Amino acid sequence: MLDAIPYWLHLLAAAAWIGPQLMMFLVIAPGLGSLDQPARLRLMQTITLRFGWLGGGAFVVLAVTGLDNIDRHAPADMFDLRYGYILSVKLVLVAVVIVLTLAHSLVAGPRLLRLQEAALNARQERSTDLTKARRLSIVLSALTLLLSLAVLFCAALLRGRFAFQGT
Questions:
Q1: Model's pTM, two decimal places?
Q2: Please, which pLDDT band fits residue 60 given cuts at 50, 70 and 90?
Q3: Residues 6+ apart with CB under 8 A from 71
């Protein structure tokens, strides 16, 4: 029973990583239009900070438990099976998700918040820079979500019979 704990932690961290992304796309983003500009900015500042901590913590747990899962469950002959190739695709997708997350968290997201605050201070609802920053944020977030879901699909494949068939 104890050997299930690392895998359970990995699944829990995956839920904590993807859950907020889904929440943002399906619930929060569609509702932002109903808020006035100051409320929208405050909400996004709060959500960004809290999701950032949750996502960062989840990612650390995913990395540690993911390495442990590879060590425990990957067959020695994994590249004679589909397992090795599926795992490789999963790791490449994870690397791309990391790059997209860093680009959004360190560059695009903070720039968007700064532009929103500047627009609020200037009592301006829209600007070209703000519109472009919003689009970039949406594109980066959407790609991150889609690739994160693809990582989950690879994880599911690794636990099934398909991964243990020869190439």
A1: 0.90
A2: very high
A3: none
